[in-house]
Structures are given as C-alpha cells and as structure tokens.
Amino acid sequence: MLLEMDCNRALLIAQIMAIMVSVGGCSQYEPLDETLIIREELDARMPAELAAQVVVPYELDETVRQDVEARLNPSGSERRRTEEILDFVFGGIDLRYSLTPTRNAVETYYTREGNCLSFVNLFVAIGRLQRLNPFYVEVEDYQRWNYHEGVVVSRGHIVAGMYVDGELSTFDFLPYQPKAYRDFEPITDLQAIAHYYNNLGAEALMGGDLEEANGDLQIAASLAPDFDKAVNNLGIVYLRTGETTRAIELYRRSLELHPDNVPLMTNLARAYQQEGEVEAAKELLERLEESNEANPFFYVYRGDLALADDDLETALRYMRKAYRTDSNLPEVHVGLVRVYLALGNFKQARHHVERALKLDATHEEARKYAAMLAQR
C-alpha cells in the first residue's frame, strides 16, 4: 500500500533542521540526509538486487553540491532563498525545456535541460540542501495520456510544493507564469521515485524498447503496487510481449482499486479484443463512453482511435467534442491539428497550432507541427 502523506512531513523535516541548527550553535550546519532514509525504505520494500539498481532522482553528487554551496547562500528568508534557487536554475545554469528523456537531478544539472519532472528533481535536491522543505506534488486536473499503437500510455504531471514563509506554493518548469491547477496532492519520496521510473518506462515504451520499459516499470510497480499509471504501462509491456492473459489479470486487479480509470479500462478492452472476447471489449467501451462525457482527454483519445481507422468524420466529431468540453488545453488543439492535416485543411491546422502554442509554448508536438506547416 502506498504511504499516505500530507504536508506535515515536510514541516516535520523543516523543524528537525531548525533544531539541528539551534543545538549546533556555531558548528557547521549539516543538512538532513534524506537519501539514507529513502535507501532504508527501498531495502525494506524490494529485493536487494532490485533496490541496488534504483537511482534516487533528487540525490546530488559532490561536484553539484559544491557548486550550489559556492553560489547560493543558505541563510536569509525562505522567499529569498527560493528566488535564489530559481535564478540559479533558470539563469545560472540556463535550464532549457526538453520533453524527453526524464532526467534525475544530476543529469539535469549537467545537460542543462529536462522536462517538468527533471526540473522538480533538481529543485527538490537544491532546496533541501538550502535548508528548505520542498516536496513532490502530483497534479490531478485531468487524466493525461498518449495514444500509441492501439494502447494508452500513462504519465503523471509532477510539480514541486513548498511552504515559503508559512504559505504553500507550487513550482514547475515555468515558475514565473501563473498556473491554475484545479487539484493537486503531495506525495511521498517513494511515490516520487515511482513516478520517475514510470516516466522512464513510458518513454521506453514509446521508443519501442520493451526490455528497458519492463525493467523501469517493474521498479515503479514494486515501489507503489497500487500506482495505477505504472500498472497500466506494465500491462502494455505484457500485451506487446504476447502475455495477454497476464495483462488482463493485472488490469482486472488494478480496476478493483481504480474502477473508473480510463487508461486501465481502455487497455483492458484492447486486451479483450486481442483475445477475441468481443462482447467484454464492447461492454467496457460503452462504459467508457458513458462515464467520460466531461473528460476532454477521453474525446481526444477516441478521436485518435478513429483517425487510426481512417474514419476522419468520426475523428473530427470527437475532437470537436473535446474542444467544446475545454478549449484551453493545448492537447485538444493538437488533436484538431492531426485531424485537419489528415483532411488537408491546412488553414484550420495552422489556426489550432497557433492556439496550442499560445497555451503552452513548450509543447513538443505542437512545435513539430508548426515547423512542418511553416514549410507548406
């Protein structure tokens, strides 16, 4: 069972740090080494040979630690230290956005690029070194997924959370732009590591490396057995390696805990289809249609499904439903771009590319379509 966490844990860590400083008097401050704590938890949860493979994504090496300590001052108000970290990340090392691969804190520092989770890994690592209390937060506005070769690959959206001078704040890759997250939940470091390995596994799946995907997703599922996204993606590995029965059993068990989970239901329907269980697949798809009338991502998924079947009329109908449900999501506009390109309507495709990039200038797929349309 996943460890439940609220912000009290982060506050407790901050209190421990404060006690260490007051007791130590003028002695040199030694930050709490959470890596040792998490290693003990890993050893308790996993076989030793598997635990030894796990990289703690917020762990820093000595070179990075020395650079941070030389350039940042761990004293002063929490707000000043926070702003100094952001200036270091986006000014000092000039971090650039890159959708893939997901990187740990050290890799993010050396390559100077990464995605949202890569940034959070680095932010959490530096923040804790600077006597602050950052923690991982999962944003739960909508289920987000990618349709890829007949299945739905799941990834979460992670931001950093922290109490700054007593006020809860969140930070992501574009920290100076206002955000409107509808729902978010602090998660434990173990859950964060599971998200990290799920991201790696999802990227390997999208790249066709099933061996790498299986290894990463086995780690994620071992760390958090009821983590629906990791279980969903591990089931895809089983589907693609011909272990359809194993995938069906895995999805059925997970749906007992997450009965309305769209990716799990969608991929189970796909597994039923592969096994020739047509009626079971049809029943699941009907349930999906009834229960996701307010979910724009579901409509985008169904539109992509129709597009893959070359049913352009149905694809456009579903993408328009997604647009009517929420026109402020870049994924919705990118879905419309795909359909309009298939229809040969380049004017409408350009319009929705522009809308997508206004909503998210870093959106990888939108940028690719913009470059392609610029050549026409």
Structure commentary:
This protein has helices spanning 8-24, 34-45, 48-51, 62-71, 78-92, 105-111, 116-129, 189-207, 210-223, 228-240, 244-257, 262-274, 278-291, 296-308, 312-325, 330-343, 346-359, 364-374, and strands spanning 96-97, 113-114, 135-139, 145-148, 151-154, 157-164, 167-171, 184-187. It is an alpha+beta fold and 376 residues long. It has three domains: 8-224, C8orf32 fold (Roll); 242-291, no CATH class; 294-376, Alpha Horseshoe (Serine Threonine Protein Phosphatase 5, Tetratricopeptide repeat), CATH 1.25.40. A four-stranded antiparallel beta sheet has the order 7-6-3-8. Strands 1-2 form a two-stranded parallel ribbon. Helix 5 (78-92) packs across helix 7 (116-129), helix 8 runs parallel beside helix 10 and helix 10 runs antiparallel to helix 11. The longest helix is centred in the middle third of the chain and has 19 residues, at 189-207. The model is unreliable at 1-29 (pLDDT under 50).
Keywords:
single chain; 376 residues; alpha+beta; C8orf32 fold; Serine Threonine Protein Phosphatase 5, Tetratricopeptide repeat; 3 domains; 4-stranded antiparallel beta sheet; two-stranded parallel sheet; 18 helices; globular; disordered N terminus
